[in-house]
Amino acid sequence: MTYVDAISWDMLNPFIMPIKVLEPHTDRLGHTNNTTYLNWMEEVSWRHIDPLGMSWAAHEKLGKAMAITRTEVDYLAASHADDELFIGTWITACDGRLQSSRHFQIFRPADGKTIVRANSYYACIDMKSGKPTRMPKEFVDAHRKAMEAHGLTPASD
Fold first, then answer.
1. What distances in angstroms separate CA 21 from CA 8, 31, 39, one per listed residue?
2. CA pair distance 60, 140, nearest whole angstrom
3. How far apart are CA 43 and CA 31, in angstroms?
4. Cα–Cα nearest to 138, from 61, 67, 69
């Protein structure tokens, strides 16, 4: 078992990305800016789905994308420059048609604190029109593969 495995993750088998908080990530109050957390959530999401078959090239080829429709963020503790964090993420739902969701947890091992918990909700859109459209099979398969890896049961169509 590695140190990362020993973190009190919200769910099993997260996709994990290490983070080092740098001075430019902080705001006037000296703690990590709220927009920085959102940027990290976007980065870990792409790192997670890319090897599952949902690379940007796949999005462009299919002409479809998963657009965020809502994000809920709970800021539970402050982080500061030089903090070492881990962000874990899980695809938590996929209806196999239009919508999916993802959970995030940002954890600071130095004191065992969860810094942020967040949930993002997505809808599949046509990249040309921006209108909602049915998820391509490739996206459904990638979501289901991720959920199974997280020990979650995907919904049936």
1. 20, 9, 12
2. 16
3. 20
4. 61
| Residue with token string 């065992």 | 112
Provide the residue-wise pLDDT of the chain in tens; the chain has 157 residues: 455 655 899 999 999 999 999 999 999 999 999 999 999 999 999 999 999 989 999 999 999 999 999 999 999 999 999 999 999 999 999 999 999 999 999 999 999 999 999 999 999 999 999 999 999 999 999 999 999 988 887 765 5
Decide if 93 contacts 155 (C-beta within 8 A): yes
Per-residue tokens: 76: 């539970």
Cα gap 40→53, rounded to integer Å: 21
Query: Assign residue 151 a region: left if phi > 0, alpha if psi is -120 to 50, beta otherwise?
Result: left
What does the alpha-carbon distance between residue 136 and residue 141 come to, in Å, rounded to a whole number?
Answer: 9
Distance CA 10, CA 156 (A): 24
Do the beta carbons of residue 7 and residue 17 sit within 8 Å? no
On the CB side of 30, how many CA atoms lie within 13 Å of its CA? 0
Question: How far apart are alpha carbons 137 and 145 in whole angstroms?
Answer: 12
Handedness of CA 36, 73, 91, 139 (dihedral sign): negative
